[in-house]
């Protein structure tokens, strides 16, 4: 009996959440051809794209090195 009441309360709660989400979250239509509407910023060029890619690679390498240092670091014995 208590289990059924809890389940009913849960179902009502979920229904209310879904109603609120339906009212407040806007519907977004996904474009079938996103490239047709994409226009890059006037300042954007291939040099910036290359710099971003190089930065991402450097950050990834740094992250991997830090992870490797944490994993490979030898344990120091006491005394």
Annotation keywords:
79 residues, mainly alpha
Q: What do these coordinates show?
A:
With 79 residues, the chain is mainly α. It has a domain at 40-73. It has helices at 2-24, 34-37, 46-72. It is flat, with a radius of gyration of 26 Å. The chain starts with a helix and ends in a 7-residue tail after the last helix. The mean pLDDT is 80.
Number of strands: 0
Averaged pLDDT, please? 80
Structural class call reads mainly alpha
Number of helices: 3
How would you sum up the major sheet?
Answer: none
**What is the radius of gyration?**
26 Å
- Please give the share of residues in helix: 55-70%
String of helices and strands: HHH
Strand content: under 5%
**Spatial gap, N to C terminus:** 64 Å
Low-confidence stretches: none
Name the overall outline. Answer: flat
Helix-strand blueprint:
Layout: H1 2-24, H2 34-37, H3 46-72
Characterize this entry briefly.
The chain has 79 residues and is mainly α. It has helices at residues 2-24, 34-37, 46-72.
């Amino acid at each position: 009996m208590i289990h059924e009441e809890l389940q009913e309360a849960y179902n009502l709660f979920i229904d209310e959440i879904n109603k609120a989400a339906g009212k407040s979250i806007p519907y977004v239509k996904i474009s079938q051809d996103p490239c047709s509407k994409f226009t890059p910023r006037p300042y954007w060029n291939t040099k910036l794209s290359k710099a971003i890619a190089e930065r991402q690679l450097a950050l990834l390498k740094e992250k991997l090195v830090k992870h490797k240092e944490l994993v490979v670091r030898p344990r120091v014995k006491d005394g």
